[in-house]
Amino acid sequence: MVIESGGIHEPRMHEICGHDPAEAEVFRSILSRIGDKWSMMLIGMLHEGPRRFTELKNMTPGISARMLTHTLRQLERDGLVEREMFAEIPPRVEYRSTPLGKSLAEPVLAVAEWASANQAGISENRDRYDAAL
Asked: Contact, 89 vs 45, CB < 8 A?
């Protein structure tokens, strides 16, 4: 929201993502990352506190170890998650949200709550649509 001389102006999507092609590509890649189903789930889980890889795997039904590793690496690359290795035997690795990741947790949790509250209605709409085909 931007306050202008004529009052409050809600920016439109094309204003937010910018007109420069390079900026637009970065913007799309960020939306792609945070819109990924595994990333959103992991951001929400790590908001609750540090987790070990196996814990995250067990809490995320349907994700393969390979996909979990890939997603965590991408979140780490984007600065949303940090990985800490402990010099123990066996080695222990923990993942936690960074301050940037924590700032994303609130909107991610809001989307998750919306999805949960509306899943029955969406399922009904899908069934109705599919039946009409």
From this structure: no
Q: Indicate the pTM of the whole model.
A: 0.77
Asked whether residue 90 carries a pLDDT value surpassing 90, the answer given is: no
- Domain residue ranges of the chain, discontinuous segments joined by +: 1-35, 37-132
The CATH-assigned architecture of domain 37-132 is Orthogonal Bundle (1.10)
Summarize pLDDT for 7-52 with one digit per residue, the tens: 566 667 667 666 677 777 888 888 888 788 899 999 999 999 999 9
Which residues neighbour 43 within 8 Å (Cβ) at sequence distance 6 or greater?
34, 75, 80, 81, 97, 101, 104, 105, 108
Pairwise CA distance, residues 1 & 16, whole Å:
11
| Distant-in-sequence, close-in-space partners of 53: CB < 8 Å, separation ≥ 6 | 68, 69, 72, 93, 95
Cα–Cα distance for residue pair 130/133, rounded to 1 Å: 5
| Torsion from C-alpha of 9, 111, 16, 72, nearest 10 degrees | 150
